[in-house]
Amino acid sequence: MATELEELIGFLSAPSPPVKKIAVDIVRDYTGSEDGLESLGKYSNVVLPSLSRLLGEKKVVSEPAAQALVNLSQKPELAGKMVEMHMVRTSMETLYKQDCEIRSLLIMLLVNLTQLDAGIDSLLQSADEKMHGLYVMKLVRSFCSSSCEGKVDPFEHVASVLVNISKKEDGRKLLLDQKRCLLKQIVRNDSKSLLRKRGVAGTIRNCCFEAENQLQNLLLISEFLWPALLLPVAGNKVYSEEDTRKMPLELASALSIEREPVTDPEIRVQAVEAIYLLILQEAGRRAFWSVNGPRILQVGYADEDDPKAMEAYERAGSLLIQESGLDEELTETSS
């Protein structure tokens, strides 16, 4: 005899829209507690496909279905089952339907699914040579064109998806592919959204782990890369003409005037860590010196008060000192 929960899950496929609506709302509410997630997880082979089929329906049904899937996908074992049943493909196909009203939730679902290597592979379309990278290209294009300050930003959470896929070598290689220019688009994203800023900084930092083999591709976008990395760590000072005349115009212009400081230490840490990965390479150090990067780190370090960020500055500064005999202001300031 079917349990009450089994009967409830069965109603997700009811032909009556009102019954289906009531059932999906109750299932969504179940996923709001640990006990509910555990109970539904026992019927994952039924409940996950049933919820997935509801994503294409009207918002009154698709929204609670998507909310339930987002909650369920926080459990790695359930996220893994979703990947196996092609939930990444279903999410992407639904996301780009013209009448889709649950884009933000679908992207949050992708964030959870790309916590897994299998989810990243699915989003990269690694198994399909002809389609490889198409999903990511779509997401990057939407991310870079949809920033609406003060309005609902359905693609904001793509920032977290990009961080996830760039943790894996195949994802970094795709973003650094010069034919696609994806990292260049991401780096140029200018938004006041903290989530977006953190995502851009984290993605750049992850991609810099490829500096040993792909430094040239990274430096090809240096016009945008150095400002993205150096402005967050430049401190609050208005720079002198003596400092700025050694910098490219885009850096010199920004640092010659008062500017809004980057108050989030996580972004500063990510930026300095990315710089460190770049200057580990000789050509990276030369490029860094060419934009007067060491001076910016010196000034920024003097204004820094976050312990983790200070440690990142000191690590980069020590490397520069060892390699070139840079003035030891960075280490002296910390003593």
Automatic annotation (TrEMBL):
It comes from Solanum tuberosum. This is Protein HGH1 homolog. Residues 274-324 form the Protein HGH1 C-terminal domain. The gene is LOC102584811. Transmembrane segments: none annotated. PANTHER family: PROTEIN HGH1 HOMOLOG. InterPro entries: ARM-like (IPR011989), ARM-type_fold (IPR016024), Hgh1 (IPR039717), Protein_HGH1_C (IPR007206), Protein_HGH1_N (IPR007205). Residues 96-269 form the Protein HGH1 N-terminal domain. Belongs to the HGH1 family.
